[in-house]
Amino acid sequence: MTARSFLALIKTETAVAVEYRTRILIWVLSSVFPLLMLAVWLSVEQTSGDRLPWSRGELIGYYFAAAVVSQLTSSFLTWAWDEDMRSGALSFRLLRPMHPFFQYLAREVGFRLVMAGFLVPSLVAATFAWDDLTYSLTPARGLLVIVTVLCGFLLNVLISMTFATAAFWSTQMANLYSLWWGAGAFLSGWIAPTELLPAPVRVASYLLPFRSSMGLPLDILVGRSTAAQSTAGLLVTAFWFLVFTWAFTRLWRAGLRHYQAVSG
Amino acid sequence: MAGRSPSLPGGQRLRRYLRLLRIFWSATVQAELEYRLNFLSNALLSLFWLVWAALGVGVYFRFGETVNGWSYPELLVVMGWFFAVNGLRQAVIQPNLGRMTEYVRMGTLDFVLTKPVNSQFMVSFRHLGIYNLLDPLLGIGLMVAALIWRGEMVSVIDLVGWVVLGAGALSVVYALAVAIQSLALWAIGGEALDDLLQGVVEAGRFPVQMYRGFVRALLTFALPVAVMTTFPVEALLGRTTLKLVVVVTLVAAAALVGASLVWRLSLRHYRGASA
């Protein structure tokens, strides 16, 4: 092994470590942040009284569930993809008789299932342990929550895979994805339940894909979404699912040609 | 081993360490400047996160002028200071803390210990993360803008109070990092500990008055969140007391001495890479 190839290896490893910074940031934000948000919203509720349309109970229910739902629907595939591309594992994935999209999907599903197995029982236990934390669910609404969480998860996987294809062309893809994630945090119901946002932002949040994996299931869960609103939300999710399916397949084909040109 | 640096007069020693710091950091900067595009895109990302945070807290003030005694401009001062402290943590502490497990595992630490330089200095200042170097400037920029918006003059005394309490805050964060680094010598996974520190610092995004009951007590007395962001900003807003400044200074000094002691104790326990 020459010194030059060794140095090149060090450079790659450094770059990999750098790419992971944002991933860790997002991980920390997603585990600590909902509870910080809850703390602040409870202070707002106490200071402003009637001017805030949401009650204390609704806020508690919303943000505790947010901590769970965000873990179930978020996707780290953009980084996994990036790692595979650098390490060459992507080439092996391409050789397998299955579209890499499904290979990555399987990986994400497995990870999220483990999360769900741990987090959902914890949330249920918390509702028994703490009187302030209750959900008045009907079976129909409960089912709707499960459906919207699943749809939100699938849409998120598709979106992160679409961003991942950008790695065929650019090394800045992970930063691009965190811009997307940051914009989404405003509109998804993460900073505030969408109903509490200023009107123009609220409208944007109802029309864009971010709310599907966060605000929509949560609003249904705490009972702040009428049947019509829930249906509209699911239609928006379906619309974006089609858009990103189209974008992904197009980018994938173009990117693959580009990739072959680089490696071969 | 920690105290085996050649005995030079105090001033000369300080100058020597400053020179070492300059050599360490300019080496890191030169290596990283190979990736200019990365630097630029990370700088833009930092700006984006700052605007993100500043606009995000605005939502609370749609329902009232103040939240638990803090107005929007005042909360933005806290955000700016949080951004500055967190940026320094990411630039100075994280790159070194993140390498500690590797130092122990690879035996690099043995090599570090043989150098005629204080080992705590070496393990905590050798590397620098340049991507977050602009964060402190951006954060202070937001603080200045928020103070102008607030429209009240900041007196010289307030400014002095902020400098003293701010130095205390940074000392406490540094001491905490050294203590965590020492734990790596007792064979505990370093990465998880860095996440822990990040989680603690993250709570400093809001002043402690935003939290209540048990959590507020925890963040004020057990974890250094109040010391880190709330107290320095309160000084700048003219809400501090001389007593608090004295207490925080003492706490910060104690933390620095304590961290150094923990480091030495851990070194005594450490038996080298082969053991």
The structure class of chain B reads mainly alpha
Average pLDDT number of chain B:
84
Order of H and E elements of chain B: HHEEHHHHHHHHHH
Largest sheet of chain B: 2 strands, antiparallel
What Rg of chain B is obtained from the alpha carbons, in whole angstroms? Answer: 20 Å
How many domains make up the 3D coordinates of chain A?
1
Task: Determine the oligomeric state from the structure.
Answer: heterodimer
Number of helices of chain A: 10
**What characterizes the major β-sheet of chain A?**
none
Helical/strand content category of chain A = mainly alpha
Low-confidence stretches of chain A: none
Strand order of the largest sheet of chain B: 1-2
Mean pLDDT of chain A: 82
Most extensive chain contact? A-B, 39 and 35 residues
Spans where pLDDT lies below 50 across 5 or more residues of chain B: 1-5
SSE topology:
The complex is a heterodimer of chains A (264) and B (275).
Chain A lengths: L2 H46 L7 H18 L3 H11 L1 H7 L4 H30 L9 H27 L7 H15 L11 H9 L7 H7 L5 H37 L1
Chain B lengths: L9 H23 L3 H23 L7 E2 L2 E2 H26 L2 H7 L1 H6 L5 H7 L9 H16 L5 H28 L6 H13 L10 H10 L2 H12 L5 H28 L6
Antiparallel strand pairs in B: 1-2
Helix pairs in contact in B: 2-3, 2-7, 3-7, 3-8, 3-9, 3-11, 8-9, 8-11, 8-12
Structure commentary:
The complex is a heterodimer of chains A (264) and B (275). Chain A has 264 residues and is an all-alpha fold. Chain A contains ten helices and no strands. Chain A has one domain (13-263). Helix content of chain A is 78%, strand content 0%. By secondary structure, chain B is mostly helical. Chain B has one domain. In chain B, 72% of the residues lie in helices and 1% in strands. In chain B, helix 3 runs antiparallel to helix 7 (135-150) and helix 3 (72-97) packs antiparallel against helix 9 (190-202). At the A-B interface, helix 1 and helix 7 of A face helix 2, strand 1 and helix 9 of B.
